[in-house]
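Bumping with the actual sequence this time:
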Amino acid sequence: MDIAQHFRGLTAMYAAAPINEIFRPTLEISEGEVVIEMELDRKFHHAGGAAHGSVYFKMLDDAAYLAAISFEKEFMLLTASFTTYMMRPVSCGKLRAVGKVVNKTRSQYIAEAVVYDAEGREAGRGNGIFVRSKTRLVDADGYDF
């Protein structure tokens, strides 16, 4: 399998995840880097009228995870740990998360992500450690290669 097929498989796998029927994100993937965008809707707000922290976490974790798995062609990864920082409340517009791998070894990947609001301001930041699981990518929903 070449790298372009792997990226198509990851894109299809991401789209096939049932939770993404709710968030409706778009994905751009390259080796070690990912961009995810989604339109923030009122249904993602907490009672104070801004995006719930789970929205920040999902975008940051997804961007970092997919940046890491861009290097892994055989197995799914697991998020071993993830730290999230929310710096700015966001209530509307397009959110954009950029994830990048900052370190990788044979058994783990460390990736960082930043989520930006519609004006390009940093709204949140996170970093995580990702490790190989026992689940093969070819067995994941949507990864058809």
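The tokens above came from a reply further down the thread. The CA atoms of residues 8 and 143 lie 8 Å apart.
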